[in-house]
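Allow me, if you will, to draw on your knowledge of protein folds for a short while. I have a record of one protein: its chain in single-letter code and its fold written as discrete structure tokens. Could you please explain, in whatever detail you think fit, how the structure tokens follow from the sequence? The record follows directly beneath this note:
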Amino acid sequence: MVQEHILTLACPDRVGLVATLARLMERHGCFIASSRTFGDPDTGQFFARIVFQSEAGDAVPEGLRSDLESAAGDLNAMCGIHTASQPVKTLLLVSKSDHCANTLLYGARRGELPIAPVGIVSNHTTLEAGFAHWNLPFFHVPVTADTKADAEQRLFDLIDETGAELVVLARYMQVLSNDACTRLSGRCINIHHSFLPSFKGAQPYHQAHTRGVKVIGASAHYVTPDLDEGPIITQATEAIDHTFSPADMIELGRHLEGTALLRAVKAHAEHRIFINAGKTVVFAR
């Protein structure tokens, strides 16, 4: 099977961008397997994701990267080339709930999710035995108000040691500091047990039940210093009715959280997401 590569580009919109990219591919003997582009009239930004193959074989054609860098300079663009089959090294953070992490780990094991889990970090030991069958390093990093700075430094040490390219807060019930959020910008995904924007704070399902909501959901988003206000990547929802108790909603919510987080991590690992002025552009495959 011929190796596929993914070219991603984001820049100010202008006439001729699609033609420029097509000529670049043609110049280096690349076959475009699929192409997604979007020009946002509100922000004036252009986004492109091109999956391509090389006539020369599995490697990226000689000179393509340098020509792309040159074009990026002219276009004031951010760009990159990724090997489609290369899984993204991912570090999972959990507290006392295992459903989201297990959803991701099962997806990775089946080859449906292009990530390579490199470890599990938790501020508790509650889940250590339950995760043992995944044969992954389990790092216990307790967090208190007095040790938060040291705990976050330990987290960044683990990111360096494991080579993690993506950090996923899979129901990690600790708020990261502004500094940690900034350092992890664009490479840290959180799952929020609510259809944002919605009921914040403690017991969101109980709040929703009291208000008699008819739709519940979960939102996966990039982490930013603004708590639960980061760019939303995916949302999963389900209709309910007056017969649902808070316990029913919590059970359904667990499934929705796993679904939303899986979709978000998959989109990130497949290089389909672009941050666009506080929101996201998420291309279909």
User: Anything to note?
Assistant: The CA atoms of residues 28 and 63 lie 8 Å apart. The mean pLDDT is 93.
